Each structure stands twice: as structure tokens, then as C-alpha cells.
């Protein structure tokens, strides 16, 4: 018996929709109840939230497309200003009304212009007789726009006096959206994370035609047994399943085992899944590089410059701050004039230890340094002039938060804070490149 039932839509369409959205039947059923029939006024605004890869965007796109409901779908990351967002909605709306792709530009500078043009675009009889759905994906970006944009979308049905429903998709809760001045409260709906049983069912649907469904389901069960505790992201798990399946099939291809020899297949795939654990989410090597590593039996860290421990994205000046901190931690204070001044004068050789008496500073570990020394080295290694603004000091705090620097002592010291650089030489070399 099908889980999705609604008198306004054909049973064949609902059955097809149910096959496209596995493990999300209850959410789709709730949405269909809210939507009602095509000509009925639906709830003015719906707020759908949940973690990444919980099916929010996919379910909404599939639902609206399968049932052929008139809709506009906009990603707020791509259209990151209010003007771009409003104009894109109008362009898609004209295409929806005329049935052809609209290429002519639409000028919309204010919200009043948008309401006026929106009414004109809905003048078509086919759009007046049924609900129009405006879906705003990554809706958290609306908080960065003008203060009147979010409240206007929440009550767009009232402003335009048209049969329109706005659906907001986000990864954060509604309490972080609500303006201080108050606004119309949308209908909120939560998409929970997929359970391990749901992931097993969804991933098992992608089995290759040359292998049986039971064989691929056993492989997915092994994969989830390894990765489920560290990764619940459906997209990442699907990528890992496609990437490692060829290695799982090797004993079968060579004739050393059949599809039911689960123990032998597990012995073959176990070390490669442990290697893949090092690159979950990071995408530090491409799929072709990973396949080549599997074929050659090498370790992922043997690819130069691709280890997760030597690669990190930092702001421009944070990289120079980290380099300056490393130089301050591992170089004695007496060498600063020699290394960072152009006209440092003559250096008496008697002040330095003999070559055979020197001890590597890397073996002794990082030494603490004051803030003014860090800034002095920063100014000498950056090509352009850097003003000691609040931005620079906030980036130092961020490096401490990221545990790339560590603060020595207490914040209330009279002579200023002292720091240590906690990263390795390989890390700094990767940053310096």
C-alpha cells in the first residue's frame, strides 16, 4: 500500500514520487497536506531546516517537478544581494508564465518594484488558478541582506494579494532568523538526519547492473560499518561508495572469491577503507589520484603537498602572521637584526657558537615570544605596509583559537601577552609556498 495519498493528485504520480524520495515519505506527506489542492491558498511561508545532506533541496525539487506545480527555485548563495535575488525570481517567473526561457533583463531596484512586477508577471490565467511556490535555498543568506527582505518574503501572499507560498530552506534553526522587531511566523518543519538504515536503503539503490543487489548491499553495509561514526553526509558516503567499489570487487574479478565470500572480500577492502578514513570530507586528492594510490599500494601521505596536515586555508595576513610566529619561536632574538634588517652592520663571529657546538632549535622546541616581536617580524616580511589595525589583532586571536598558536601565561600580564608557534616545519613550508 503506498504511503503517499492525496485526492488532488493522480495515484501514478504519487507512486512515482514515493520511489524518488525514499525514507522521506512522512515529510512529503506533510508537505502535500500543507499545499492542498492546486487552486487552494496554501500557508504563506514555510521554513524547512535540517543538517546538510538531509534531503531538503532534493525533496522540494523532486516534489514540485514530479507533480508539475508552478515554482521558482533560487539559490541565495548565487544571488547574494537583494537586487540580484528579486530580479532572478522575476526572470524565472516570466519563463514559468510564458512557457519559454526568458532572457531579457528585468530591472528591480526596490521591494515596491518587485511587488508591482510580480503582480504583472502573475497576470497569466494559468498562474492565477493555482498556487505558485517560491523556493529560496540556503535562506540563511537573507540575514545578510536589507532588513525588510526577510519579513517581506514571509508575508508575500499578503503584500501581493496573490496565491503564492514562499519556502525557505536552511541548515540553521528559525530562532536565528527571527528579527528583533518581530515578523510573520512561518510554518516550521524539520528534516532529521538519515539513520544508518535509511542510508543503507538509499545507497543500495545505486548498485551496478553487472552485480546483484545483495552483493552491493553487503558492500554498503561494510562501508557504513567503517564510516558511519565519522560521516553521516549522504553525498560524501555516496562518493566513497563509488570510489572504493572497484577495490571491493577485485577478488571476484580475479576469480579468487565469489560474491558470497564476505570474509575474504572484507579482508581485501579493509586496509583501503582505513586509508580512505584519512581523506573524509577533505577532497585533498582527486578520484583518479586515489585510484592510482590504491593500484600502487601507496599511502595517501606520499603525494607531496596533499596531506591534510600540511594544507589549510587561511586569510592572507594570517599566513604571514603564522610564518612570523614560526620565525620568532625558532630563531633567537639576537638574530632578528641580522635576518630582518637590510643595514645591520658587521656581525662579530665570536658572538656565535661554533658550527659543531650548535644544537638544532627544532629539537629544543618552540620558544615563547612577545607580541611586539611578532608584529616587528610581520612588518619586515610583508612587502606592503601593514597598519596595526583591529583586523590584524583579531587574526592573531583566531590563530590561537585554531591552536596554530598558543598563548603562554595569562592575559592580564603587565608586559603584554606571549605566544608560541605550535605548527611543524612542513606545515609552514606549505603555507609559505
TrEMBL record:
Keyword list, A-Z: ATP-binding, DNA replication, Nucleotide-binding, Nucleus
Subcellular location: Nucleus
One GO molecular-function entry: DNA replication origin binding
Domain Origin recognition complex subunit 5 C-terminal: 314-433
GO cellular component: nuclear origin of replication recognition complex
Gene3D superfamilies in the record: P-loop containing nucleotide triphosphate hydrolases
GO terms of biological process kind: DNA replication initiation
InterPro entries: AAA_16, ORC5, ORC5_C, ORC5_lid, P-loop_NTPase
Top-level division of the source organism's lineage: Eukaryota
Residue intervals of the ORC5 lid domain: 216-283
Domain Orc1-like AAA ATPase: 21-167
Cited function: Component of the origin recognition complex (ORC) that binds origins of replication. DNA-binding is ATP-dependent. The specific DNA sequences that define origins of replication have not been identified yet. ORC is required to assemble the pre-replication complex necessary to initiate DNA replication.
Subunit field text: Component of ORC, a complex composed of at least 6 subunits: ORC1, ORC2, ORC3, ORC4, ORC5 and ORC6. ORC is regulated in a cell-cycle dependent manner. It is sequentially assembled at the exit from anaphase of mitosis and disassembled as cells enter S phase.
Family designation: Belongs to the ORC5 family.
Protein name: Origin recognition complex subunit 5
UniProt organism field: Hylia prasina
